[in-house]
Amino acid sequence: MIVVSGIQPTGNLHLGNYLGAIRNWVKMQDDMGSDRKCLFFLADLHAISLPHDPAQLRDNTLEMTAALVACGLDPARCVLFNQAQVPAHAELQWLLMGTARMGWLNRMTQWKDKAGKNREGQSVALFGYPVLQAADVLLYQATHVPVGEDQKQHLELARDIAQKFNNDFASEEDPVFTLPEPFIPPAAARIMSLRDGSKKMSKSDVSDMSRINLTDDADTMAQKVKKAKTDPEPLPSELDGLEGRPEALNLVSIYAALAGTTPEAVLAEFGGQGFGAFKPALAEQLVSVLGPIRDRFVELKDDREQLDAILVRGASQARELGTPTLDAAYDALGLVRASGS
Ligand code: TYM
Fold it and tell me: Residues 24, 82: one domain?
């Protein structure tokens, strides 16, 4: 079992990232036996597909590393690194560019959302973004990729690319790439904005009130929950009663994910009560789960030397782990490289 996943170091880690992905990364690392390898990385190469400030990207990469360690990733038990220190990601992306089809990329909903009506004005990197994501996982022969629901389509594309490359350039008995499986949590796979239950919680939302950041203090979290959009009805006692009430469903799902229970159990407890009673209970859950993470993050975030050392060590391990597959991909394509490159 080879587990690989990444996160863009743009802005803060938020509750959606934590419940949808990072919490599962930590679980997979903790359950790891000798037959398992876990690699987690900062997708800094992906972050240049949209306009960005170089100094801020550098800072964010270290901050996000601190946030991941604060969440429970242990660089002694997983390989933690940033893409930019492992050139094989960019190299393999180029090798896969010959296999990925324009039509496949054109269908990506994230491309459509991010480009909006201005496709002509977007960077080529934004269009080719999912091919780099495919390279990220195929490079290590990933079997499991823990992600939130929004990344499912990108992983299906990675499988399509792997399959076509294997068909075109390898034999069935000796494929170059393993087909990766997305590993999406059954609950909390899509946490929605606190301001609009039809939009996912996101780093790029202009309103900070729309998300809970891992860096928010207890008062800020409580304020955000208090101001979260809801409706005037009390909570129902059964899940069916949340149909057509996306904001209420989102808050109940968040509570359940934090408390390690189901939305049904939350409704059994709070059914019939209004948000005046439910919101303070939710804020309490948030503070009890995220508070300790935030404290560890504050301790770690200014220790640039330690964070740099973590990434240097992780990158050196990742470079070594990726070499056989990169070599095999060059070879399959008939590309002759200088020896030792
Ligand atoms: P990114 O940086 O947007 O998000 C990191 C992880 O958090 C999950 N996530 C959510 N889950 C539930 N609810 C939400 N509101 C929410 N928002 C984000 C994402 O699904 C993701 O798992 N393209 C990727 C980064 C990437 C990657 C990869 C992931 C690059 N290469 C290879 C997996 C494998 C991204 O932008 O995620």
Answer: yes
CA–CA separation, 176 and 341 (whole Å): 19
Residue among 2, 17, 157 to mutate when testing ligand 1 (max atoms within 8 A of CB): 17
In a structure prediction context, what are the per-residue pLDDT tens digits for the chain, which is 341 residues long? 999 999 999 988 999 999 999 999 999 999 877 678 999 999 999 999 999 999 999 999 999 999 999 999 999 999 999 999 999 999 999 999 999 999 999 999 999 999 999 999 999 999 999 999 999 999 999 999 999 999 999 999 999 999 999 999 999 899 999 999 999 988 888 999 999 999 999 998 999 999 999 999 999 999 999 999 999 999 999 999 999 999 999 999 999 999 999 999 999 999 999 999 999 999 999 999 999 999 999 999 999 999 999 999 999 999 999 999 999 999 999 999 877 66
- From atom 26 of ligand 1, which residue's Cα is the shortest distance away? 6
Tell whether 45 and 179 lie within a shared domain. Answer: yes
Domain span holding position 96 = 2-189+303-332
Secondary structure (3-state) at 76: coil
- Residue 47 C-alpha to ligand 1 middle, in angstroms? 12
- Cβ < 6 A, ligand 1 pocket: 5-8, 16-17, 20-21, 43, 46, 133, 136-137, 145, 147-148, 150-151, 189-191, 200-202
In a domain, 341, yes or no: no
Number of H-type helices and E-type strands within the chain:
13, 5
Cα-Cα-Cα-Cα torsion 286, 79, 133, 121, nearest 10 degrees, comes to 70
